[in-house]
Amino acid sequence: MNIQWYPGHMTKTVRMMSENISLVDVVVELIDARIPYSSKNPDIDNLAKNKKRIIVMNKTDLADPAKTEVWKKWFEAKGFTVILADAVKGTGVNKVADTARTLMKDKIEREKARGRLFVPVRAMIVGIPNVGKSTFINKTVGKTTAKTGDKPGVTKGKQWIRIKKDFELLDTPGILWPKFEDEEVGLKLAMIGSINDNILDTETLCTEYINLMMVVNPNFIKNRYNVEFDTIDEPHDVLEKIAVSRGFIKKGGEPDCERTAKIVLDEFRGGKIGKITLEMPEDIHEMEAKMVREEKEKKAKDAARKAEYKKKNNR
Ligand code: G4P
Question: Which of 17, 54, 225, 257 could join 28 in a cystine, given CB atoms 3.0 to 4.6 angstroms apart?
Answer without folding.
Answer: 54
